[in-house]
Amino acid sequence: MTTVTVGPGRPWAVWLISLYIALLLILPVDIGLGVGGSIVTPARVALLAAALLAIVQWRTVLAALRRVPLMIWIGWAAFLGAALVTAIAWPSAASWARYASLVGEGLVVFVLVSHAASTPAALRTLIGLFAATMVGVAAVVLVLAILGLRYDHVVSGLAGTVPAADNLARYGLERQAGPFRGAAYFGIWLTAASALVLPAIVHGQRAMRWLALVGWLVLVVAALFTTGSRLAMTMVFVLPGVFFLVRGPRAVGLASLVVAAVVALGVSLFPANSVIEGSTTLRVAAIHASIDAVRMHPLFGWGLLSDQSALSGILGQRNYVDNEYLSIAVEMGLVGLTGFLLLVMSVVLTTLRAWRTPVGLALLLALMAILGMAVLISVLQATQGYAAFSVLAALGVMAALNRARSDGEAAVEIDERR
């Protein structure tokens, strides 16, 4: 089956998915045309174009998806099935819109990215594009911060939309949200991208190594001085520590972990102000209220997008869940949480097969970092974060499948020589 291409070996799918990833990470999620209560963002337009192309080329898409392990499709079916039951049990416009986003920018993104990244060259292109986009955004955020401006304010001002609420300063630094709805979310995706540039630092050609190192430094500086996120400030050093301990040089890995420990200690010893104390108090209260909420509706939860209203009702004051797993348990019950865990575990276990390759290890670390930081922030509740996670999940799975294919081809070549 021939494919439509835009040059040697460059299928349209790769270009459209690259455009989707770039727009997803550059523009705030509220920039676009309002249609039926939802916002048609430029990223969604690119995704729609890729979906239409996939329909035309359904045979090649199906061939790529057949390689994906069955347990991953079971995970998707369990998670989205639980979401559907929840939406039916607690119907509302917001609930159905959330379910549509889970399917439209979750499953669809996973399918289309898996198809686009079905070859090693395409996989490297999409990984590089993801990392380069975040480096570019981080650089712009830093420059604007030096000028006393905010990225989200500037972009929203140009688009005529309302920017995200200002994040109160921490550690004497003004927090920046970048293209996301909060500084903590920005910090998480800076951290994920910092893992993706590590293979180029070690295994790229000389010029690429230096370029990747500069990109990593930009991401680290942005995480340290613009997010105020204790998690991001620490994890940007933990990830290279683990990467270099596995891949070498181990001295660099140990040094990076030492820096991570110093940063974590320094943040913990920094004099707490009312903002930090208030954040901790709200988190503790939210955990207790979330447990109570799950006890009240243990199976299918309170309904999609209901975590904030459920907690606020229990506490008698406005609050929200800063824990992705508890948030899913509140909204979708234990059935939904089980489906989600089944999905992410199947993705992680598949990606784990590629950990011996630099790219596979980097993707595994990025995924594990996001899932780990999700304990302290509901990063996947926002559609933008959920879609970006689906991108990385698909890339991780395809890294493992491409590794398995190359190993199989190498084995066949050896047998033929014999």
Q: Main attributes?
A:
418 residues, mainly alpha, two-stranded antiparallel sheet, 2 strands, 74% helix, globular, disordered C terminus
Give a structural overview.
This protein has 17 helices and 2 strands. It has 418 residues and is an all-alpha fold. The longest helix has 35 residues, at 383-417. The radius of gyration is 21 Å and the shape is globular.
How would the blueprint of this fold be written?
Elements: H1 12-26, E1 33-35, E2 38-40, H2 42-56, H3 58-65, H4 70-89, H5 93-116, H6 120-146, H7 151-159, H8 183-196, H9 198-203, H10 206-226, H11 230-247, H12 250-269, H13 274-296, H14 307-315, H15 324-351, H16 358-373, H17 383-417
Antiparallel strand pairs: 1-2
Helix pairs in contact: 1-2, 1-6, 2-3, 2-5, 3-5, 4-5, 4-15, 5-17, 6-8, 6-10, 6-17, 8-10, 8-11, 8-16, 10-11, 11-12, 11-16, 13-14, 13-15, 15-17, 16-17
